[in-house]
Specification:
77 residues
């Protein structure tokens, strides 16, 4: 099964409900750290995202990327 696709950056011309842009920015920042191979920081960012937005549609994707980051770091516990 392929990994979840990274979310696209939301358009600033279409404001959403309060907090949606903040959530998207947080997720995008975590993905940027993951792509930059800053896996430790990405894990922290994804954990923060999940703590702030536990019911956000991207929360399950954030959890997946936490697992991927741990795997790349060979942190198997």
């Amino acid at each position: 099964m392929p990994p979840p696709a990274p979310a696209s950056v939301s358009s600033p011309s279409r404001p959403g409900p309060i907090g949606v842009d903040d959530a998207q920015r947080g997720y995008d920042m975590a993905m940027a750290n993951s792509r930059a191979r800053e896996h430790g920081q990405a894990v922290l960012d994804f954990l923060d995202f999940i703590a702030r937005y536990p019911s956000h549609p991207l929360a399950s994707s954030a959890q997946y990327w936490i697992g991927e980051a741990y795997y790349v770091q060979r942190d198997y516990h």
